[in-house]
Amino acid sequence: MKGVGKKMRRPRKKGTPQKYDPTFKGPIYNRGCTDVICCVALFIAIVGYVAVGIIAWTHGDPRKVIYPTDSRGQFCGQKGTPNENKPFLFYFNILKCASPLVLLEFQCPTTQTCVEKCPSRYLTYLQAYTRPQDFEYYKQFCVPGFGESKVKSPTEVLRDGDCPSVLTPSKPLARRCLPAIETHKGVITVGNETTFDDGRGQKRNVSELVEGAKKANVVLEARQLAMRVFEDYTVSWYWILIGLVIAMALSLIFIVLLRFLAGIMIWIMIVMVILVLGYGIFHCYMEYSRLRGEAGSDVSIGDLGFQTDFRVYLHLRQTWLAFMIILCVLELIIILLLIFLRKRILIAIALIKEASRAVGYVMTSLLYPLFTFFLLCLCIAYWASTAVFLSTSNEAIYKVFNDTACVAAGQTCNPETFPTSNVTRLCPDARCQFAFYGGETGYHRALLGLQIYNVFMFFWLANFALALGQVTLAGAFASYYWAIKKPDDLPAFPLFSSFGRALRYHTGSLAFGSLLLAIVQVIRVILEYLDQRLKAAENRFAKFLMTCLKCCFWCLEKFLKFLNRNAYIMIAIYGTNFCTSAKNAFFLLMRNIVRVAVLDKVTDFLFLLGKLLVVGSVGILAFFFFTHRIKIVEDTAPSLNYYWVPILTVIIGSYLIAHGFFSVYGMCVDTLFLCFCEDLERNDGSPERPYFMSPELRDILLKGNAEAGKSEAQEE
């Protein structure tokens, strides 16, 4: 039975290895167009995307996001309008903002008008009516045109809602006049008063104003945070740019040194990363110890809840303990990986040295990420502007608001014809005022679909820009590898030649690969949206199913990115279509699966350490600068609402810059590795069939391949 089992065992199919071809000298120049249907589909989709943008820009109005709107749908503070000098929105009765309607329709059921400045004192309409000087002050808070028609009695004015019944001291918040609430020894006051006259003969507690202000503010909290963040950017953008320039300089210096001192730089990088993480652990421990015994420092993050001012968390011992634990885990993981991968790191360093030579002979490759970054900025700018215009292309919707029960309350209305409508006879105190932006036309019903199309095209075009960069770099570095005499046999402009071939022949293949990735990414966005909607549900099975789907599509996206990257290398070399290139690349990697684990992923790990070194160095410098801890430039650092805003911006920007530079090396290593695997199958190192790899690379890689071959034999 044992013999029969061996006899019945079938060999695993991993594709057909490449055969020796004396005419093959690297990237094929005589090639044809591939995946033409996908190229046409991309062109049609772009034309449709431009049409969506034009439609959105025609109907949209971003002012709806920036400026508050009064009860007539007019913008406050907008230049060229009657409200140009009235930037603030005033609520006639802030108490009505405590209604649940605020949370449902994002509007207070009270008259709202644009004013030049917020009221600064308590004053009722009845008091102002008897004093001419106060009455002139009061009229600026009434509806536009008040006092120009026939004179009304105070009772008629308050009945018709022409003026507010009372003014309360207010301060502008997000361009809205909200009560100037203050707390003194635990007592809440507004304008140094604990009670106020509501203008109708009743004394009210200021706590009612607080409740109304809270509900009115529920929609404004995010905008307030955004405004403070924007203010921080306006005063710190110059220093943020300096930090990003420092990150670019560090990345460039590191790459140049890597060209000449690859082995030494890799080990220096490893040691520096360990030291930077070690300093982070030490700093967290010192802050944790310093806060011992301070009042309020032992409060847990869960008890504190969410705070818009993130500086509050830095006064908690639990925050620094969490940071310290995270850094300790990272430090331990890196040290363990270095111990177990020490032999493979030597092999990876040899591959990085060869990549350094290739980058040295194709120096323009270091500048190519700037072009990719430019294309991505165009995609992001077009997507963001189109999204804003689409979201603001709704029309002003007016609804009936009433203080008492009314059958017409909540119905849509027309403010021009409302005074003569039946609603005013049914509900004498009803008002027709602006509610929100919406619409019932075919265009407005299609807005959700247009937004989804906008997101889909953003992913497609962004992935296409990245794919174009990968194919271009792969073609240039493949030209280096397959040159017998390096660099004499290199073409004159390998990067530009590769870029031209990619656009001329393989736009369709790039569109195909990026389309597959875009579909998966859009599905992931939809799943995230559904997951947010299901959070309030108690259905455990639905939550479990959603988690499984999110995990599966995350894995699928990672696999597609890996497959696309290697498929693009094969496209750059052989000029085949996407499916053929993906199949050949996949089977080539499967035939060298141990080598992939030994070389390719170890180099990715080393490049990740390089990115962390750049980001960590610039991040620590930004932290000390923006927190005024560098004595020399202590007075130069700007005063900020949230110092984490520029620090996070510098850290994220530094990572993107470092990733851009190291991505060139990463693509170079992947291309050389795939070419190396092809070289082993095509040639045997004899004078008739010599290897194309350099002697230095051959000596160390073939030694590593001997070990890999033993591992593969054991698997068999």
TrEMBL record:
Molecular function terms from GO: antiporter activity; organic cation transmembrane transporter activity
Catalytic activity: ethanolamine(out) + n H(+)(in) = ethanolamine(in) + n H(+)(out); choline(out) + n H(+)(in) = choline(in) + n H(+)(out)
Record's GO cellular component terms: mitochondrial outer membrane; plasma membrane
Keyword Cell membrane: yes
Phosphoprotein listed as a keyword: yes
Transmembrane segments: 36-57, 237-257, 264-282, 320-341, 361-384, 457-484, 505-527, 568-590, 605-628, 640-662
Subcellular location: Cell membrane; Mitochondrion outer membrane
Keywords, sorted A to Z: Antiport, Cell membrane, Glycoprotein, Membrane, Mitochondrion, Mitochondrion outer membrane, Phosphoprotein, Transmembrane, Transmembrane helix, Transport
Entry membrane topology: Multi-pass membrane protein
Family: Belongs to the CTL (choline transporter-like) family.
Known role: Choline transporter.
Subunit description: Interacts with COCH.
UniProt protein name: Choline transporter-like protein
Source organism (scientific name): Phascolarctos cinereus (Koala)
